[in-house]
């Protein structure tokens, strides 16, 4: 099975058009175009009944005390955790492409609703938790929301775009389900999977 993410090559920087946050010399970060990239896949195995698309960043600081704080840095030695940026499940077996901008086109304060979307069923991404304390932004963030790593992080962040071919038509998930729920529901149902990884940073010393 093969996945193609248009505009993103393995191990190369992700274009700013797909980012939630872009570099700003004045304010460190400003909102980006936040469009989902076009994702397509091929060579799914016989017996595939649905697909799931997952995008996550495994390089997110497990402790956020120093994140985006003036005069501080997020140490490269800090333990890291997964931050989910995109969860789409129950994509019909007849679908093999998600067009650019279909699931996200711009930063929407307070997010997008979970549940059935333009293609498949949306789970909630980790911005839901990350922005919960921000009165201007708090809400339910479902579907795609792109990279916006801490601007003072010492490490480059990696973003894994994954597609899974599944042997069930539905994972049976509803409501505001998250990335761990998707992983648990897929267990034992994956016929094939494919991944491409891009990188992104807002740290001017790493750009």
Automatic annotation (TrEMBL):
Gene3D superfamilies: PEBP-like. InterPro entries: PEBP (IPR008914), PEBP-like_sf (IPR036610), YbhB_YbcL/LppC-like (IPR005247). Keywords: Protein kinase inhibitor. GO terms for molecular function: protein kinase inhibitor activity. It holds the Pfam family PBP. SUPFAM superfamilies: PEBP-like. NCBIfam families: YbhB/YbcL family Raf kinase inhibitor-like protein. This is YbhB/YbcL family Raf kinase inhibitor-like protein.
